[in-house]
Amino acid sequence: QVQLVESGGGVVQPGGSLRLSCAASRRVFSSNTMAWYRQAPGKQRELVASITRGGSTSYPDSVKGRFTISRDNAKNTVSLQMNSLKPEDTAVYYCNGDLKLYYSSSDYLNYWGQGTQVTVSS
After folding, report:
1. Is the pLDDT assigned to residue 1 strictly greater than 90?
2. Of 26, 38, 61, 85, which one is least surrounded by beta carbons within 10 A?
3. Residue-wise burial string across 54-76, b where 16 or more C-beta atoms lie within 10 A, e elsewhere
4. Chain centre distance of CA 1
């Protein structure tokens, strides 16, 4: 089995920056659309950023201009650079991705990471 593993969370002051990274727990053949979601206490999980294999990105207005998603197709990894962080960005951040485990696999399957905590507080 394979899972996505996030790293880079932590505590940062308002206005600060953090960079999250995500990789599969073992080597996979290919990845398709990758994304970051977040879930704050008492709220629903929401999409923060997504990126297609070709590099097209999408962001909600709440993070546009502050967050940047990027990927490395050769390594099947995805990162999220978060700048100008606000207290309302505090949440558990989850990596999500469509992975093809083997060359012979018939299709991409969707996987989630276990999440990494980001806390923005003075």
Report:
1. no
2. 61
3. eeeeebeeebeeebbbbbeeeeb
4. 20
Q: What is the DSSP string of 3-32?
A: -EEEE--EEE-TT--EEEEEEESS--SEEE
Q: Which of 78, 96, 86 has its CA nearest to residue 38?
A: 96
Task: At 60, list the tokens.
Answer: 């909600």
Residue-level pLDDT at 106? 87
pLDDT of 42-83, one tens digit each?
999 999 999 999 999 999 999 999 999 999 999 999 999 999
| Backbone phi, psi, residue 88, to 5° | -70, -5
Straight-line distance from the first to the last Cα atom of the chain, in angstroms, rounded to the nearest whole number: 40
DSSP code of residue 49 = E
